[in-house]
């Protein structure tokens, strides 16, 4: 009886899933922190892309010629 009780206390079947959950939670917190820290840069990047698309500027910085 005592061996069975000690076996239940040492059982580690669910431990792996708990560790994966903790790592996943830590990664989620790191991603949110990175997004908060880089918020202004990300907004500027998207605003720059929007301006570029709206102005019709190509990658080389010239306006494309009209189609014949």
From TrEMBL:
<keyword id="KW-0472">Membrane</keyword>
<protein>
    <submittedName>
        <fullName>Flp family type IVb pilin</fullName>
    </submittedName>
</protein>
<keyword id="KW-1133">Transmembrane helix</keyword>
<feature type="transmembrane region" description="Helical">
    <location>
        <begin position="20"/>
        <end position="38"/>
    </location>
</feature>
<keyword id="KW-0812">Transmembrane</keyword>
